[in-house]
């Protein structure tokens, strides 16, 4: 019973983060399942079955708060489903030990770009409103879906930073669209796992409690992302990407850093991340105050009588 309660709380916390930042549900939940001895395929299958419910609830919640661009959902979600099915059916014979650090080397520069870009300059506006092309979203969806199924998580970490970096839609719509499209990925991956490994290695009680925790958290997360300033959100997402991928690289066979080195690196990154978020909040408040003053001056100018 304690294990089920813990899994439910993990599902709730993971969905709060995922629904607010567009990533982390799969990575968080899969990490816990692997830590208690679940094999990789069964862990990923359990998480993706739970995500059918959590992503549906999250997508509907984001839709209610107008956080979803349905054109983006279709362009990335359908190819993503194909990639997820392929990744799920081949997971039992595919090693991701080499793929993880390679993917981290790709994601880490994206995370650094996002945290620097949003912290220093705020929301990129030069491309805001321009359409995201299918030739960009379709390959991204295939890769993200494949990584998500084989690694137990990755749809958000791959998809969110790539679309955020384009600066073409606001961060809240990036997160809402990624969460909504993940429903297609979860369904396809689950079908692939059921075909590949069957249901005998899947604990459906675990699926249920993970799903329940995520469904409870989904509307709260969708409300949060609607009200979090884009500048703060970009800095927060960038920090998550950097921390996650530095952790993967330090623990990989390529580096195999000692515990002390890892601890120092995490503390240093956490301090820098906290400073970036604090700076973003300060600049957001300054910008908001400046706009308020400009609006008052504009109204005062309009109210002044014109000379005869």
From TrEMBL:
User: So where does this one cross the membrane?
Assistant: 98-116, 180-198, 204-225, 262-281
Would the keyword Membrane be found if you checked this record's keyword annotation? yes
Query: Where is it mostly found?
Result: membrane
One Pfam family named in its UniProt record:
TauE
Keywords, A to Z, come to: Cell membrane, Membrane, Transmembrane, Transmembrane helix
Q: Per its UniProt entry, which superkingdom is the organism in?
A: Bacteria
Membrane topology of the entry = Multi-pass membrane protein
Task: Answer yes or no on keyword ATP-binding.
Answer: no
State the family named in the UniProt similarity comment for this chain: Belongs to the 4-toluene sulfonate uptake permease (TSUP) (TC 2.A.102) family.
| Name by which UniProt lists this protein | Probable membrane transporter protein
């Amino acid at each position: 019973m304690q294990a089920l309660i813990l899994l439910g709380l993990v599902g709730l916390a993971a969905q709060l983060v995922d629904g607010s930042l567009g990533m982390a549900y799969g990575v968080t939940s899969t990490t816990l399942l692997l830590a208690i001895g679940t094999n990789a395929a069964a862990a990923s299958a359990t998480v993706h079955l739970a995500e059918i419910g959590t992503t549906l609830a999250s997508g509907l919640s984001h839709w209610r708060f107008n956080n979803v661009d349905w054109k983006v959902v279709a362009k990335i979600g359908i190819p993503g489903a194909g990639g997820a099915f392929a990744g799920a059916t081949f997971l039992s014979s595919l090693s991701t030990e080499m793929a993880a650090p390679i993917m981290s080397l790709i994601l880490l520069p994206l995370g650094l770009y996002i945290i620097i870009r949003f912290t220093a300059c705020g929301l990129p506006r030069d491309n805001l409103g321009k359409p995201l092309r299918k030739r960009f979203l379709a390959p991204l969806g295939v890769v993200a879906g494949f990584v998500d199924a084989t690694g137990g998580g990755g749809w958000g970490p791959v998809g969110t930073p790539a679309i955020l970096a384009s600066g073409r839609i606001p961060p809240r719509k990036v997160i809402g669209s990624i969460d909504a499209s993940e429903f297609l990925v979860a369904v396809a991956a689950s079908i692939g796992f059921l075909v590949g490994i069957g249901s005998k290695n899947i604990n459906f009680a675990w699926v249920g409690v993970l799903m329940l925790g995520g469904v409870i958290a989904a509307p709260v997360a969708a409300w949060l992302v609607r009200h979090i300033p884009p500048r703060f959100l970009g800095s927060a997402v960038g920090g998550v990407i950097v921390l996650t991928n530095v952790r993967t690289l330090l623990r990989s066979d390529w580096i195999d850093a000692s515990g002390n080195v890892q601890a120092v690196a995490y503390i240093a990154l956490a301090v820098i991340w906290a400073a970036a978020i604090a700076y973003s909040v300060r600049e957001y408040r300054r910008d908001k105050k400046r706009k308020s003053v400009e609006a008052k001056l504009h109204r005062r100018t309009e109210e002044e009588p014109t000379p005869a």
